[in-house]
Amino acid sequence: MIPGRRAVSASLSAKYYREGWWRSETFLDDFLGKAAQDPERPALVSYVAGQASPSRHTYGELELLSRRCAAALIDLGVKQGETVSVQLPNTWEFPAIALGIMRAGAIVNTLVPIFRSRELEFILERTKSRILIAPNLYRGFDYGSMALQLREIVPTLEHVVLLGSERADSVSFDERFIGCGWEEDPNLISELSQRLPSSDDLVAIQFTSGTTGEPKGVLHSYNTVFSGAQVIDKIYGLDPNDVCFMASTLAHQTGFCYGMVKPLSMGMKVVYQDVWDADQMLDAVETEQIVWTVSATAFAMDMVAAQRRRNRDLSSFKYFICGGAAIPPKVVEEAAEVLGTELIAVWGMTENMVVTTTRPGDSVELVSNSDGTPIEWMEIRLMTEKGSLASAGEEGSLQTRGSSQALGYFHREDLYAAANPDEDWFDTGDVARLRPDGGIRIVGRTKDIIIRGGENIPVTEIESLILRHSLVDEVAIIGVPDERLGERACAVVSSSSTELNLADLSDFLEESGTAKQFWPEQMVLMSEMPRTPSGKIQKFKLREYLDGPAPT
């Protein structure tokens, strides 16, 4: 048993299998089947910054590459159930290696590219990884040197596999993994067939970069990921001919599930971008006939601005599935007007993937003011401070239960137990309001509360209101210490205008009829917000910033 993995109750497990939300096959089986049936079918298109044209791979080519990766890992001594750590950008190598790890019967430990030595040392020691796979260089940073330094620090780390490097003190990915002929070995073929995972095996450990600090290793099985991925076809009605685009890191649940697992198990073509570039993405929509993507609100805003600068044929682009932050009404309207696409609002976490969603055809008002209704394989409930279920219009602590719920935190049974107040229910840490239509609206975090003179400020609600201001691009409200009141609210704002000031926000909130005690009493303009890889603003970093020179 993997340390930290919880057991799902027998009754719920039986229900998930009975309803088809879990199954005996894995999405790896799906991919291998698609590759065998139609090896010439386009699988991957990888746009890499600085390269004139993208690389292209078919399903047959990707299957061969993943087989070679699996063989190379077995040759390095990888055992079934072992954790292999991968820190790579969005290029074809990521799915080739991830699928290879799965075929070797091991577990993928996905590491986002922004992690540096401090985070990596913590994670590698906790997972006891023997193998770390990384680029030699990426975006001007020397990942190779960092990885080799970590090998001297982390006792269990034996092998550093580097892409694009011939360093003598590392394993060459190009030579050892791709440039070999492992696939011709009959013993290997037999070994791989014996190592195929079962649907209840763990597939990934994903450490949250967090909006509040220390990362937690989220455990997912093939079945929990399969379940969460079903939203793409069962709710949005997408099919194998609908091309996917993914710029969100594949190391995060958004990219892993909706940019790799789901497209490749369905037989879709998926287009990757290693460095976000709105113009390049829109050009790709036109040339690759991209139909859908899942990403952060900020990306949609960038696309609108890029399309206004230069018009493209975006007639294929159907859905922008948007999570991580409230969606301003103007962005929903501009996406329809400028991009010709429909924004869909979702709420979820690394721990459970998409849990609530608006539906295709929903109104601008609904997409802007709701986080959707639960999908059929996930339950939600809102618990009041008194321990009762919240009714329509009431706020409560948001809890979830269902077939895409994570199976625990790696080596942190205590943390996961603390988040499970009742059997199989998971306390998300979010506070939500129940809408009359059965949907929810996230209004804050239980750990993101500002108490001003004994009055709780509805942080997320005020942020959503401020986002309606024509000069506000993004906003995050955080508490700053105050001797008299305990805390006051500070609005950290990203704006296209340097003239925006606190008085402007106050006037706007007054016009909206918002209680004065909820208004921010300080404002700071920032050119760029610190973010997690999924696009969420890291408020703890904003607090660290404000602990420096006093805001003006």
Describe the structure.
It is a single chain. By secondary structure, this protein is of the alpha/beta class. It folds into 3 domains: 26-41 and 54-224, Rossmann fold (3-Layer(aba) Sandwich); 276-445, ANL, N-terminal domain (Rossmann fold, 3-Layer(aba) Sandwich); 456-546, GMP Synthetase, Chain A, domain 3 (2-Layer Sandwich). 34% of the residues lie in helices and 25% in strands. It contains 19 helices and 25 strands. A 9-stranded mixed β-sheet has the order 2-1-11-10-12-13-14-15-16, with helices on both faces. Strands 7-6-5-3-4-8-9 form a 7-stranded mixed β-sheet, with helices on both faces. A 4-stranded antiparallel β-sheet has the order 17-18-19-20. The radius of gyration is 23 Å and the shape is globular. The model has no long low-confidence stretch (mean pLDDT 90).
Task: Describe the SSE topology.
Blueprint: H1 10-19, H2 27-37, E1 42-47, E2 55-58, H3 59-75, E3 83-86, H4 93-103, E4 107-110, H5 117-127, E5 131-135, H6 143-153, E6 159-163, E7 171-172, H7 173-178, H8 186-195, E8 202-207, E9 217-221, H9 222-229, H10 231-234, E10 243-246, H11 253-266, E11 270-273, H12 278-288, E12 290-296, H13 297-309, E13 319-323, H14 329-339, E14 342-349, E15 353-357, H15 364-369, E16 373-374, E17 378-383, E18 395-402, H16 413-418, E19 426-434, E20 440-445, E21 450-452, E22 455-457, H17 459-466, E23 472-482, E24 486-495, H18 502-511, E25 522-525, H19 539-546
Parallel strand pairs: 1-11, 3-4, 3-5, 4-8, 5-6, 6-7, 10-11, 10-12, 12-13, 13-14, 24-25
Antiparallel strand pairs: 1-2, 8-9, 14-15, 15-16, 17-18, 18-19, 19-20, 21-22, 23-24
Helix pairs in contact: 2-3, 2-11, 3-4, 9-11, 12-13, 13-14
